[in-house]
Amino acid sequence: MGQVIDSPAVWASNLRKRYKRRTAVDGVSFTVGRGEVLGLLGPNGAGKTSVIKMMLGLVRPDAGEVMLLGRPNTDPRSRQRVGYLPELFRYQPWLSADEVLRLHVRLAGVKVSGEDRRETLALVGLADRAGDRVGGFSKGMQQRLGLAVALVAGPDLVVLDEPTSALDPLGRADVRDLLLSLKDRGVAVLLNSHLIGEVERVCDRVMILDHGRVAASGTLAELLGRRSLRLHLTHVTPEAAALLEPCEREGDRYTIALPDDVPALVAGLVKLGVGVHAVEPARVSLEERLLDILREHP
Ligand SMILES: Nc1ncnc2c1ncn2[C@@H]1O[C@H](COP(=O)(O)OP(=O)(O)OP(=O)(O)O)[C@@H](O)[C@H]1O
């Protein structure tokens, strides 16, 4: 149907937005590959929701261009295969969950069978609430319904703005599994979440926004750097210390770059009479890295 399949799911170039004298977004460019999960992180007011809204054509940018699934986002067809869960969602309280889904697929102009709607509700844990009025739903159940709305038409790109803010820990774990299964099916996901652990677990790449600009972006490996090895050692002779160079030391705790052969290193230390009390692989967490990046960002 003329859609360019090998184009990225999202291509956004130099997006800018001012609200009166406040610059909300200041030259943000990014792509989301097909089947890729991109995490959007940043402090309150960094511009994340504004970027998402401009990307989806819900807010007009002052500058910049966006292609969604190979089409300019100004073309209404570009959004047909995009599912969106807004940050602030409110569904018609007088409708049942199934009616909300029916309404949304009708508005999107797509055909979805009753069976597919039931399956989508089951996917978000609302199988037995399909006929219940949304007005009586808890916040978390409304958020689950929002996810169902985003997923019901089998999109190629899913944009989730804080999808788990109202969910209990089990619900969050469900959403994580859901995101991983979308990824397996080649669906691209843009995930805006303050839950860094969640982003760290499911995202292939992360973009960190601060004051409307990209403070950092890259794969987790690029952002977090090399893994390291922490050792708790006593009786370290100068000869043994040479095996650990270069290292960072705090008392008996040594941190070195993760060697290719950890058992060989430990055997070497033991042979030299070193007391090896603990050996654990470590990596700076995304949370620590995020805080560092935000502190360093002008
Ligand atoms: N409709 C609007 N009118 C005026 N200012 C706005 C509007 N929408 C956003 N802003 C401003 O733009 C900036 C970015 O807001 P945005 O909602 O994009 O941030 P965010 O990163 O999504 O924040 P949060 O993590 O709190 O959701 C803020 O300073 C906000 O006050």
Automatic annotation (TrEMBL):
InterPro entries: AAA+_ATPase, ABC_transporter-like_ATP-bd, ABC_transporter-like_CS, P-loop_NTPase. Keywords: ATP-binding, Nucleotide-binding, Transport. Residues 10-236 form the ABC transporter domain. Pfam families: ABC_tran (PF00005). GO terms for molecular function: ATP binding; ATP hydrolysis activity. Belongs to the ABC transporter superfamily. This is ABC-2 type transport system ATP-binding protein. It comes from Actinoplanes italicus. The lineage of its organism: Bacteria, Bacillati, Actinomycetota, Actinomycetes, Micromonosporales.
